[in-house]
Structures are given as structure tokens and as C-alpha cells.
Amino acid sequence: MKPQTKRKQQAIETKERIFKCAVALFGQYSYENVTVNDICQAAQVSIGAFYHHFKNKECILNEGYRLFDDQLEAAWDDGHPDNDLEAIRFLVAGQMQSMQQMGALAASQYFKNQLTYEEKYILNKDRFFYRTIYEAVQGELTSENLFGEAQTITEDILSNCRGIIYDWCLHEGSYDLMLKGERVLEMVLYYYSKSIDKGAGAE
Q1: What is the pTM assigned to this prediction?
Q2: H-assigned helices in the chain
Q3: Contacts by 184-192 with C-beta closer than 8 Å and gap 24+?
Q4: Predicted local confidence at residue 154, as pLDDT
Q5: Is the pLDDT of residue 202 over 50?
Q6: Number of other residues whose CB lies within 10 A of the CB of residue 28
Q7: Coil, strand, or helix at residue 36?
């Protein structure tokens, strides 16, 4: 059992090394200009090892979304705000921080991938990121009187986040993504919070 566990751990480490080297290369040279051979050389693995872990280059980017969700869930489990609005801020800040650390060029590759790849993981409602924001919205921002659908509000929050990241990529990362993300999120939260207040007043 011990040798098998060691092999499994080595496989995980190899996959993570391939992923990190690939994203670094995408951020430096752009996705289109990086070959599988380039990734293998950077990660010091064989072509066979690459295809053992990834079906193709596109799968690396999809892995990035899943890895982000795993990291965000781990941060959530380590400690998160009890207040629903603060929870939304916590999650969105995690997304913005992840993109900013990655860099604008690398982040733009994720958007290109999702525009052309059949599996739109970024829109998957079963993702931890989506589910947890949805649950927080249900607890704080829904109203039977106005804008009562949590899914609509969640989609508004997430589409605003995607728009900000896209704009940041267009500007080649020339401004602080986290600050702008925070500012625009507050606009959305303020709008829906006020809508609930109006609905309560109508009673």
C-alpha cells in the first residue's frame, strides 16, 4: 500500500508541475504560441507523462478553473464570514486575487478557452464558487416583492465579475483588479439591498 500511495502522490505533484509550468508559459508567450513540447520541457516531463495527465492543451485551462474552486473552498473551510454579504465579498475577492496573481495575459487565455471549448465550466452551477454565492444571496438579497430570484442576482454578480476581469485583461492589467472588483461589487450589492428595502416599504 505504501508504494502505491507514494506513486499517487508523485502523480499529483507531476500534474501540478505540468499545470503551473503551462500557465507560466501561457502568461509569458500566450496560449497559441506554446506547444505541448514547450510545456514538457519546462516541467521536465516526457510527452507521454503529459498525455497521461491531460488530454490536450485545452484541458490544462479547464484544470485551472477546478483548481481555483478547490483553493477557494479550502480557504473557505479555513474560515469565512458568517454574514452573507461579507461572504459574497470574501468569495469575489478570492477570485480577483487569483486572477491578479496569475497576470492579465494568462487570465485572458482562460476567456479564450471558454469561448471556444465545448465544456463551459465557468458557467457550471455546480461549481463551489457559484453554489456558495447563490446560498449567500438566498440568505441576504432575495425578496418576495422585488427581484426575488436568487439565481438572477447570482448571475448578475458573476457576470459583473467576468466583465471586470475581461476589461482588466483588455487593459493588460494596468490597474488594480481587486480594487475595481470590490468597487463594482458594492454597486451590485447596494442596488439589490435597496431593492429589498423598497419592497419591505411597500408592505
Answers
A1: 0.78
A2: 2-29, 36-43, 47-53, 57-78, 84-102, 104-116, 128-140, 150-170, 177-202
A3: 184/160, 185/88, 185/89, 185/92, 185/157, 185/160, 185/161, 188/156, 188/157, 188/160, 189/85, 189/88, 189/89, 189/141, 192/141, 192/147, 192/153, 192/156
A4: 93
A5: no
A6: 13
A7: helix
